[in-house]
Amino acid sequence: MSEMNELYQQLILEHNKSPRNFKKLELFTHDADGYNPLCGDHYHIWLKLDGDTIADIGFQGSGCAISKSSASMMTSAIKGMKIPEAKILFEKFHTVIMTKIGDAIPEEKIEELGSLGALAGVREFPARIKCASLAWHAFNAALNQLAPTVSTEQEKNYKPS
Known about the structure:
Layout: H1 2-17, E1 30-35, E2 42-50, E3 53-62, H2 65-78, H3 83-97, H4 107-112, H5 126-144, E4 149-151
Parallel strand pairs: 1-4
Antiparallel strand pairs: 1-2, 2-3
Helix pairs in contact: 1-2, 2-5, 3-5
């Protein structure tokens, strides 16, 4: 298991060092800001939808290694996805990282996330859950046009579709 944790750490560090889709989209259809006032992490997410497909996605901002890596991994995973698939992935990711400490996560749930499963370990550090979920909630807000800005301290950020 320590070999797996080391691989996950390397993946997170790689995405932090060289984030994917770290760009502002000049042509976009949806966008939202995500902000964590407790630690100062702040990201803006831009989406370009083409029908029911996420044709392009970009993000910019600043934050810790976990939040930047999560944003990078999220954008890589959902770029090109159909909207219903992206919503399902959001639900799966949210369920895994929000699982209470001590409660076992079935291995298949983590495997369903692919490389995003690397972030499952953050649930053991409650303060880091908000870091890992910030970009996801901004994505959800942009996609569902919930609010121009979402905060990790707002209850209404999570609205299943």
